[in-house]
Every structure is written in C-alpha cells, then in structure tokens.
Fold this protein.
Amino acid sequence: MIPKRYARLKQVLNKRQPDLTVLMEDVHKPHNLSAIIRTCDAVGVFAAHAVNRYTDTPTYSQVAQGSEKWVKLHSHPDITTAITNLQKQHYSVYAAHFSDLAVDYRDLDYTKPTAILLGTERWGVTKTAADLVNGHIAIPMLGMVQSLNVSVATAVILFEAQRQRLAAGLYEEVSLDPETYKQVIFEWSYPDVAAIYRDRGEPYPDLGEQGELLNPTNIN
C-alpha cells in the first residue's frame, strides 16, 4: 500500500454519509443504475438500495467508472420490505413522485437521515411505494417534457442534499462508526486480502498509520 493512496482512501471515507441514501425501484437498465451509483459516490453516499421485481439487480456498466467499488449496493426482496427497513433505521423516505402532496425537492431538509426513492422513467414509483413513504418530492419542470431521466433526477436531488450538508458542516466530521470504518478501509485498501480473510472467517488484521498490514497471518 502506497501511503499517498491510503491517505486518499481515508480522505474519501471520512466524508461518507451513512444517513443519506437512495432506493431504486425497478431501475432495471444497467446504464441508469451505474450512473446513479456514480453520483452516489460523488456526493458521499455510503450505500444504496435496490428492488427489482422482474429481474436481478443489473450489473454495473462502464458508466460507473469504478464507483461500484466504493458504494455498497443492497438488494431487497420487495419494496415494502425495503421502505420498512429503512424507516426502522430512522430514515425518512421520500419518493420522487408527482402528486398533489409533492413538495419542491429543495424544500426538504437533507441534513436529517434521508432516503430518496426513485422509480422507472415510464411508470415512476408504484402505488404501494407512494403510500408507504414519508412524503413526495418533485423537481419543477418548465418545458414540454415533464420528467427527467432517472439518473439525472437522482443527480439533481443528491447534489441539493450535498449542498445542504456542506453548509451544515456534515462533511467535516467522520460519520461512520469505528467498527464499520475499520472494516471498509481494510476492504478498500486490500480487497484481495480481505476476500481471503472472509473465506477463512477470520477478522481483518490492523493497519498502520500509512496503511501497512500489521501482524497478518499467512495469506498464501
């Protein structure tokens, strides 16, 4: 591990926001999913969530530019389970959904634990999802087209969340708990070695100040 590389990894992980996430409902096109993951990485989202009723969660495409290595993606069996689990973790879940209840996306307070639900471009979120969430948000549209590509809409909303969180100083403090931080920085630094330890069921060794392995067991 090159110390400069290790310092860069820590710099990125220090700014991850574990209480800001997205939930994708039936976003089945790999291009869109990859673009959303890339935006998540750019704004510091720690993990994203997905539900796909008809297919497996798509694989990443080159659009992700490697960002799939830095953003965890959790799959859920159905939308009810996904939303309920997030709410139990104290997230407020808001659907990007045009309705009489929808508010301007900029009126939301993204400094609180927030999950943004996105549906497909053609159908939007399902009625089940719209009924379960804490509220609806919309991006004002002034042209003939009344919707954005799902990955573009995600970027618009997440960068507003980033703006608010930057202003509140939330990127200036480490938000991940120490145990998660230790696990993730090891997996980012030594992905192949981490896989060996996981297969063995052994805990990861400690890392030194410059990212060096301390007292590793035999990994050959």
